[in-house]
Amino acid sequence: MAKLTLDLHPIFNKGGRIEQALEQVIVEAEAKRIKTVEIIPGKGSGQLKKRVLRFLDQPRIKARYHRVEKDAKNFGRVWVHFRH
Where would a tag sit more exposed on the chain, N or C end, judged by fewer CB atoms within 10 A? Predict the structure, then answer.
């Protein structure tokens, strides 16, 4: 099963680039009809993960995917599932 992975570690402190990277990975998943996107905000303080979840919770974004799954075993990982 094909999936995309977005590791946010390299840009964790570059505000606008985070949303841009999230938007790009969603567009790519839609274009390639990929079912799962793995987003790695990392463990840290949890602020980046909260930011990712807030981004995904926006109505214009939420309409584009099926569901979000938080990894129970790894706090620093989120999956976004699509239905194409």
Answer: N
How far is CA 16 from each of CA 2, 66, 67, rounded to the nearest angstrom? Answer: 28, 25, 24
| CATH code of the domain containing 46 | 3.30.1370.110
**In total, how many domains does the chain have?**
1
Between 35 and 84, the higher pLDDT residue: 35
- In this predicted structure, the answer to whether residue 54 has a pLDDT above a threshold of 90 is yes
CB atoms within 10 A of CB 42: 15
